[in-house]
Each structure stands twice: as structure tokens, then as C-alpha cells.
Please model this.
Amino acid sequence: MVLPCKLVAIVAFLALLFDSSSCLPSIASKLTDPAPTTWPLQFHSILFMNNSGKLQKVELWYDWPNGRNFNIIQNQLGKLLYDLEWTNGTSFYYTLDSNRECRVMHFPVGILGPNWLQGANYLGQRYMDGFLCNVWEKVDFIWYCEDVVSKRPVYWAFFNGMTAHVMTFEVGKVLEDPNWQAPVYCFKEADDEEEQNPSLESVASSTTGSHGRFLRGAMALSLD
Ligand SMILES: *[C@@H]1O[C@H](CO)[C@@H](O)[C@H](O)[C@H]1NC(C)=O
Ligand SMILES: *[C@@H]1O[C@H](CO)[C@@H](O)[C@H](O)[C@H]1NC(C)=O
Model:
């Protein structure tokens, strides 16, 4: 398999971060390893993201019981993009400015379940952003850091180089229903306007489970 250079660089970097003993956990330590905290069913979070040098502030509204997830993405000195995801596979990407842009896409995966980190490999404790974290990874996917004391997420890094710093994490906070309505221009001529982007679609359909679900949102961050 040919790995993209960026991925190789990140894997090499991660290998440097962890000493060999934490890279090779023994069977015995597996039994006592902490498990990542299940995500709350509903929360509001503000994230600062670095997408290969492109900075973004993301408001994340996670709402599992209602089968929906919202990323409101402010690009630095740039576009404010709304990424509204339904668990039936439909995502709306739109702006609310005078350009009235909207893309509708369908994915074969729903939104990320609260236990999506289950089965991640424990890598030990590290300081990240000044917080002592338990760290897990899902190979070729994500590196995830959770505050040891509060159990809140602090930071995560996708293996494509995108990183997220968690600025706020408000458990139980829900965005009211009217805000989950995509604008009317998303529904006009829906058949013509539905996005046929082969590269995005192959990303979406070749990845199943939590990878595909996470990529569904991560993808929006790279839209312009
Ligand atoms: C964002 O990430 C790039 C590497 O992709 C790094 O060079 C840059 O310093 C980072 N910017 C900030 C503000 O962290
Ligand atoms: C999924 O649900 C949303 C919100 O109810 C709706 O707008 C969309 O058309 C649905 N998609 C499918 C494929 O049924």
C-alpha cells in the first residue's frame, strides 16, 4: 500500500511522541487500561481547528437522540459554512449570506454514535494544551486526548493532519429545533444541485463505521 507523504510524516511524528513501551502495551496492561469516556448524548462544543495551516472555529452541536449533528464552521477571515448532518445519511452544506450556496449530499453512514471511541488503543498519559490527558488512538484514523480528571475531550488529531482543540464542552446543551432547518434554497431544484463529487463520494462509501461517520463531518472542513 502506498501511503500519502503526509500520513507517513504524521505516523513518524507520533512514533516519536510515544516511547516504545507505550507503543507495545503488554497483555497485562490491557486489562487495566482506562477506556475513553462515552460521548454525552447531547452537547455543545467550540473547537479550534487547524486544517494543514488553515484555521477554523467550529461550533459543534451533537444531538444523538434526534439523529443530527451540526458543525458551524468559521474559516479565519473567511466563509461561515453550515454543515448539517442527519443520521439518515443526508448532509446539507450551506452559507446563510447573499450567495445562498447549498450542497446536498447523501452518505451510506449515519452520524457518529456516542461510543465511537470504543476499542481504541490506550497509549498512556501525556500533557496536551496544558492538560494531563489519557490518550488513545484508532490506527490510521484518530489520536484522541481526554482530560484525566474531568474526562472531557481536550484535543484530537486526524491522521490527515487536521487537529482540533476543544475550547468549551457543555454537556446537555441543545440547539432549538428551528435552527436545524436548512434554508429553502437547499430544496430548490434538488435533483440538479445534488453534488456529484466522485472523490468525496468514494471517501464516504469506502469508509464504514466510525471512520466514515467522522469523515463525513471532517470533509465539510475542507470545503471552500
Ligand atoms: C497549523 O498546522 C501547521 C502544520 O500543518 C503548523 O505549521 C502551524 O504552525 C499550525 N498553526 C497553528 C496556529 O497552530
Ligand atoms: C433526512 O432527513 C432530513 C431531515 O428530516 C430530510 O430533510 C432529508 O430529506 C432526509 N433524507 C432522506 C434521504 O430521506
About this structure: The two ends are 30 Å apart (CA to CA). Helices lie at 5-17, 20-23, 27-32, 190-193, 198-206, 209-221. Residues 86, 88-90, 106 surround 2-acetamido-2-deoxy-beta-D-glucopyranose (ligand 2) (CB under 6 Å).
